[in-house]
């Protein structure tokens, strides 16, 4: 009987030790994911509503703020790539003429991020887009590199 009590005590001790290790592991895992989110923000996907002839990108301003880009530049790129027209309404939502699926917006926003947001040298999203002498210039806040970026043109077919 004494052996059984000692065994239960050891089992309880190891169980608590495993729980403590598990909690420590979860804390470390949480720190790693926080660091990853800080250095690589997720692509903000658009909440959209479909009407009969228009698609509304509800969180358009949130997307622009996340990327640190002017709404008129992002809107010009989206509309040119979709080959349609659109505008911002009073609630600052993007109204796009035509019906589009969510994956259309996601794919085009990924292209925008790759072309106009991410640094080519260090792939940091911490960049600034300015216009100098009719040319858009992207400057990275992390590594200091700069490059000219292509102007927005109509969709490539």
TrEMBL record:
According to the entry, every stretch annotated as the Translation initiation factor IF2/IF5 domain falls at: 33-146
Entry's SUPFAM superfamilies?
A: Translation initiation factor 2 beta, aIF2beta, N-terminal domain, Zinc-binding domain of translation initiation factor 2 beta
Q: Which GO terms describe its cellular component?
A: eukaryotic translation initiation factor 2 complex
Q: Which InterPro entries match?
A: IF2/IF5, Transl_init_fac_IF2/IF5_dom, Transl_init_fac_IF2/IF5_N, Transl_init_fac_IF2/IF5_Zn-bd
- Keyword annotations for this protein? Initiation factor, Protein biosynthesis
This protein's superkingdom? Eukaryota
Q: Which GO terms describe its biological process?
A: formation of translation preinitiation complex
What are this entry's molecular-function GO terms?
A: mRNA binding; translation initiation factor activity; translation initiation factor binding
Please describe the quaternary structure of this protein: Eukaryotic translation initiation factor 2 eIF2 is a heterotrimeric complex composed of an alpha, a beta and a gamma subunit.
Which family, according to UniProt?
Answer: Belongs to the eIF-2-beta/eIF-5 family.
What does the record give as the function of this protein? Component of the eIF2 complex that functions in the early steps of protein synthesis by forming a ternary complex with GTP and initiator tRNA. This complex binds to a 40S ribosomal subunit, followed by mRNA binding to form a 43S pre-initiation complex (43S PIC). Junction of the 60S ribosomal subunit to form the 80S initiation complex is preceded by hydrolysis of the GTP bound to eIF2 and release of an eIF2-GDP binary complex. In order for eIF2 to recycle and catalyze another round of initiation, the GDP bound to eIF2 must exchange with GTP by way of a reaction catalyzed by eIF2B.
What's the protein here called? Answer: Eukaryotic translation initiation factor 2 subunit beta
Q: Which organism is it from?
A: Acer saccharum (Sugar maple)
From the broadest rank down, the organism's phylogenetic lineage runs:
Eukaryota, Viridiplantae, Streptophyta, Embryophyta, Tracheophyta
